[in-house]
Structure prediction request, 1037 residues.
Amino acid sequence: MNESKSCASTNSKWDTWESINWTKCEVEVKKLQARIVKAQKAGKHNKVKALQWMLVHSFYAKALAVRRVTSNKGKNTAGVDHVLWATSHGKMNAITELRRRGYRPQPLKRVHIKKKNGKLRPLGIPTMKDRAMQALYLMALDPIAETTGDNCSYGFRKERCAHDAIGQCFCVLAKEASPKWILEGDIKGCFDHISHQWLIDNIPMDKVMLKKWLKSGFVFNNRLFPTEEGTPQGGIISPTLANMALDGLQAKLSERFIKINHHRDTYYPKVHLIRYADDFIITGRSKEMLEDEVLPLVKEFLETRGLTLSEEKTKITHIENGFDFLGFNIRKYNDKMLIKPSKEGVKRFLDKIGELVKGNPSVTQSSIIRLLNPIIIGWANYYKYVVSSDTFSKADYQIFHKLWRWALKRHPKKSKTWIKKKYFRKIGTRSWTFSVENKKDEVNKRHHALKYLTDTEIIRYVKIRNEVNPYEPMDKEYFDKRETYKMLLTLNGKKTILKMWERQNRKCPICGNPINKEMSWYIKEDIVEGKKVKTLIHDSCHRSIVQLNKKKEIMSRFLYRNLELLEPYEGKLSCTVLRGESSRKGADLPDQQIEKGFALYLYDYKFPDLSEIAYNHLLNHLDGYKVKPKFYVINFDDPRKSHRCNPINASFMSDIADAYEASYTIMLNLNRSWISKQGDFFVESPIILLAAIIWYLRIYQGGRYCTFPHAIELLNKKYADVFTILRSYPELENYLSPFVDAWESSAVEQLQGQIASAKIPLSRMISPALYWVMTGDDFSLDINNPKEPKILVVGNNPDRQNIYSAALGLYNSRIVKLINKKGQLKSSVIIDELPTIYFRGLDNLIATARSNKVAVLLGFQDYSQLTRDYGDKESRVIQNTVGNVFSGQVVGETAKILSERFGKVLQKRQSMTINQREKSTSISTQMDSLIPASKISNLTQGMFVGAVADNFDERIEQKIFHCEIVVDNEKVKRETAHYVKLPQIIDFTDKDGNDRMQEEIQANYDRIRQEVRQIVENEITRIKNDPELCHLIKEEE
Prediction:
């Protein structure tokens, strides 16, 4: 296994539990979770499933799942099998046991715990293996739950807590114009009564695994009971399932109760939902609205999920009377909102203190302090964000009296003065501190004292933003700053920050300026040698790092980075020989652009040579991008290692001209000889026919079937049916007029010739594998979209060049149109072996791309190839508009053109004539070639010549050069030794381990053909039944 992969199999190089690099595991799992979030937001549900499958089969995720269940509070609690993973060997074996195939969960062990109302809450304890499997699948499900969940849901969600829910209550209810009525809701037995069928139908995860967990049953009093409903409390994945079951109520309320503008007045229903797990409140404008409209809607929503409201806990309250929520009392006093600890919560706390004190009459004072302090600190920390000062003071007084009575009962014959001296001491300004001397600290004579609630500082809690997602990379900076804020709220956190601050000599490592309260700062987390390293840096320094943009052009970087000036070349003073150092001959260009943060389109003729280089370089230079790009591959030879993309997706075709351009590109790639015959009748006819079919598919049912394979199949149907269907659409009549004229005039030979000109070349492209790749929608072709940058490589095969080039040419033409726009990310188009593919619009792209931050790099052997495949005029335009030229040995016309491009220089000539009488010397000047064609024709391997262009602010004095590429073979070996192969994109293996690739691709091929047959049947039926169109059928008949 190589660590640079985004997903690893279970066959890891880590042999022991202690040797596992947990930081690496976390980073790789987070990458996949971020991809799941992105695919979910884009609506690519098949992509989401593929990524979930990849995650749950990765070694990294399995290792983290095992670590979670062996390091939490339940690590010493076994299930019905009485098995614990306590040893390192057992944990490593557990990783290999987490397999989907053959997995069968065991029943849960049923136990009961007391609820706050005295009733019993049933808990189901799974086995260690079942817990680990649930934790594994939760990693793949939780990103979706966070993406689709209600914004105002706070229970059992990452980075959210009860204080966020209370903060939202304050935001909604504190203002003068806020709603006055509140519906307090509580779902009766939420976990125990959720409908299994609803969960199976609606939860986006592996249905087989979900059904196994739901139907596993439980064991109680040595008897096995089935589970027909509910998801048991105690399972790791259960809270997320319950949350997802309740998500959607906020959207329903928003749809039903909307703001209404009437003349100059605006009606606000003031309906807001705030939910924490199965407890929720809904605000409303009036009591009647909540009773008559909101409550029935909530009941209907819950009924579909098999749930009902608890009658005893569901009530409607006015804000001035107040209500309890999550242990807090929320109430308005004279229109001022105050949130306090609830009376019930205070009573439970004091009762717990009383029971503990009363139940330990004979323990030492130090022991009672150790028992009480964690409870007091925890309760104070929970309520320190609200109006709690008076409550803390009263509770401290009650605790004092309980301890005073405890002390009196221990010494009934002693005086109160004696008891006060024994148990209470003066510490600071407080005289009655319940404390005991620490005998171990004889030097400082410190005391082990009881904590007081009033010592806790009351602070304002900063609520989390509703829309942020902990799995979204764009929100990482927000959560980093929030972590810094949380650390500052705790003493331990302050100590950690203080140590970091001192370690850095109180300075920012980026700018060297002091870190103090004058400038904002935050904690930056990096990974160095596989370990997390935290650093304090200024906010401004962090922004400068993120926004750093290397501005040097490719050629100026190459010329000035590692160049050594040598001797003048053949006396031509302006032609200096340069020697540069490079590890690869052609791969530096994608490498340099990836390092600079370019989006990239790479046509790899000898796939996967350049593709693997680009992929590995991207893995090592992701930090050069503000938004991390995704790597996509189009490869017709091996569908396992290819994404799927529809180049004529309906969403990118706004006009029939787009269909004509697509048809033009396809037909000219299939028939290269047509390039020089553009305008001929038998060249334009098939192009127009295919364009009409493509546009028909675009407008039919909103473009549902608008794919290239569908166009091929429709073209191969009976031409009488095809013409009848196309003629029924007015916008296609003009396109079809040449064919209709031939049809109606019985010019059958001409018509068949026109149609055959389209059918024959396109028939070469009828391939199930090609159909498979070109009918999917894994990604869009706007590679330089700043929000979703992409690195796209398309691979050709020299043995199937004539077939694949037409399809890849279609991708080329669509990409050229989509990327050559203003306001996009800087991008690069690299075409290796340009003559092997017809790139429509290339001359226009080169001429206009620079202003749109698009770099175009073309590679070919000889100018004559360009002239042969693109025609003389277009070839000349391409040659003359390119700004930078590199060339090795070329001969003939190409060498002459390059020599002319490099220009001439004024040379001095000296000639000497000697005869019997005298010796004469003549000196003259003439213009001579800077680099003669003969020199270019005889370059040795590794030598090259070229010319570069510069910018206004980046002048290059030496624009013409003659260089030698020095290849460091050892460096190449070291670099390529760490290369990883392109990852497998799609796994066609079924649950039984059988490879189903051929079956799935063939099924896709058959589906396309069946869909086209159905389209023809439906359209002919429609035309027959339409009085205005039925004459088209009659004419044909």
